[in-house]
Design goal:
TIM Barrel, 8-stranded parallel beta barrel, 7-stranded antiparallel β-sheet
Length: 506
């Protein structure tokens, strides 16, 4: 007999309105993300600017509201002036982060135009590694101001009369990491970030700023870093960043599916650090979270390290091109559920990255763009996860894994959109062996009907997609039952599920 998990949902039990930016992504000048990713002049799918239209259409399908740019580790040695103006005047630079050549054919001028074509906004990062406050102010003036001043005039001289009006700015990247160009202590970085954010907001009061949190939960300075940085910068920033990548190096699928229990700890710990500083400062201001790098990333690590060591200073080499499996897609779906569960504090999240580099979208240099396995959970949650996150009451079975105790069989969250009169329930069966009967009490949603039941289901945890075809994609089921306000569906082992109900629809 299948295990049973019961969930009660009420539209009045609201966690938060979900910020659409939780479905953001990331494009760094790294590998083939930009060159032969979003940009490939001469390709049959290229438009008049050299941007691949097939990639743009897939980005639009994901409905990505914001894209972090231009890094990442890349930004900590980035000279933004090299990426603007006439291309013939731009300098090719060494990118120390990934040991490649950066030709600067695509820069801020072009990327703002790509963003418009892709119906997305930009989350801009400034270099606080090898540069500082003055350069950040110059970049902000160039991007956002319409004043009769040098850098605003320079943008107009470069052909862009109207400001780019970029609203969200990252104060550097992973400055706690010894691998970062310009790595700093928490106090050093906190002071620089505070003064930079303060000066930038004096120039443009409409912007929001993100201060660097820990590069990942396992950093030895995790917790003390957040507290130390915010002790300096709390009054001048709006968000603290979180970064985390997951991998199944042990080939233990059940334990891999439990990594979002660790993510729960990470989120709660950073929230606690933010609120500790808030209390310490007697502040009325709340710092929220920007989880602006997250994904599965481990498949390509060894090859990437060897290539960067033995074949440095190449143009757009194949780097960080993980080919994602079925189980990777389930983990990404779990992460999205966790962000929604914490949408009262997680206001921005960026799947890292968007094209070719640890990405849901891949391109063939001489062929099509195609969807990796992880494309689909992101697509489904982005499509139906707009509105209000609801706080459910869940009771069901659990199981132990090799390193986790009491892992709930079902991880789930409902999202209610009152304008569309629609409720979507996202649920993952983390039990890799057994079906689970999922019963949802929806008696507060009278008149609603099941309009979609989509699922990622599979028995081959290592199945991948390719340009030749898709082994992993959603199936559409019609066997969910709604009886007297109780929804019932059998969720297959190791599956990601989306159940959608709408009022007055058959």
């Amino acid at each position: 007999m299948a295990e049973i998990t019961k969930m009660v949902v009420d539209k009045d039990y609201v966690i938060s309105k979900i910020d659409d930016r939780i479905y953001g992504s990331f494009i760094e000048h790294l590998g083939r993300a930009v060159y032969n990713g979003i940009y490939q002049p001469g390709h049959p799918a290229a438009d008049e600017m050299g941007f691949r239209k097939d990639v743009i259409e897939l980005v639009k399908e994901l409905n990505v509201p914001i894209v972090r740019y231009p890094g990442g580790n890349f930004v900590s040695n980035f000279r933004w002036e090299d990426s603007v103006g006439p291309r013939e005047d731009r300098r090719t630079r060494l990118d120390l982060a990934w040991r490649t050549l950066e030709p600067n054919e695509i820069g801020i001028n072009e990327f703002t135009k790509w963003a418009k074509k892709a119906d997305t906004d930009i989350m801009m990062a400034v270099n606080l590694g090898t540069r500082g406050t003055a350069d950040a102010l110059n970049l902000l003036e160039y991007c956002n101001l319409d004043t009769p001043s040098y850098y605003a005039d320079l943008r107009r001289k470069h052909g862009d009369k109207d400001p780019y009006n970029i609203k969200l700015w990252c104060m550097g990247n992973e400055m706690d990491g010894p691998w970062q160009m310009g790595h700093k202590t928490a106090t050093e970085y906190g002071r620089l970030a505070a003064e930079t954010a303060k000066a930038m907001k004096a120039m443009d009061r409409s912007i929001e700023t993100v201060v660097c949190g820990s590069s990942f939960v396992g950093m030895p300075t995790f917790g003390s870093w957040e507290a130390g940085v915010l002790d300096e910068a709390y009054d001048y920033v709006d968000y603290v960043s979180l970064h985390q990548y997951w991998g199944n190096q042990k080939n233990d699928t059940a334990d891999f599916f439990a990594v979002t229990d660790d993510l729960e700890f990470f989120l709660r710990s950073v929230i606690a650090a933010c609120d500790f500083v808030k209390g310490k400062k007697h502040s009325n201001k709340t710092i929220n979270l920007s989880f602006d790098e997250w994904n599965v990333w481990y498949h390509s690590n060894d090859q990437d390290n060897a290539d960067m060591e033995n074949m440095p200073w190449r143009l757009h080499p194949h780097l960080l091109e993980d080919h994602y499996t079925y189980e990777d897609a389930i983990v990404d779906g779990l992460a999205l559920i966790k962000f929604i569960q914490h949408s009262d504090r997680v206001k921005v999240a960026c799947l890292a990255q968007l094209v070719n580099v640890i990405a849901p979208i891949m391109t063939e240099d001489d062929g099509p763009a195609w969807k990796q396995t992880i494309f689909y959970p992101f697509y489904l949650v982005s499509k139906y996860g707009r509105g209000y996150a609801l706080q459910p009451v869940i009771k069901g079975g659990d199981h132990a894994t090799s390193t986790h105790d009491h892992v709930s069989d079902i991880e789930a969250v409902p999202v209610y959109d009152p304008e569309k009169e629609r409720i979507a329930i996202f649920a993952v069966n983390r039990n890799v062996d057994e079906n689970v009967t999922f019963e949802v009490d929806l008696r507060g949603f009278e008149g609603f009907k099941v309009t979609e039941f989509s699922a990622l289901e599979g028995t081959d945890m290592k199945a991948v997609n390719s340009a030749a075809g898709e082994n992993v994609k959603p199936v559409h089921r019609s066997d969910a039952k709604l009886d007297n306000g109780v929804l019932s569906a059998v969720l297959k082992p190791a599956s990601f599920n989306v159940l959608v109900l709408e009022k007055g629809r058959d």
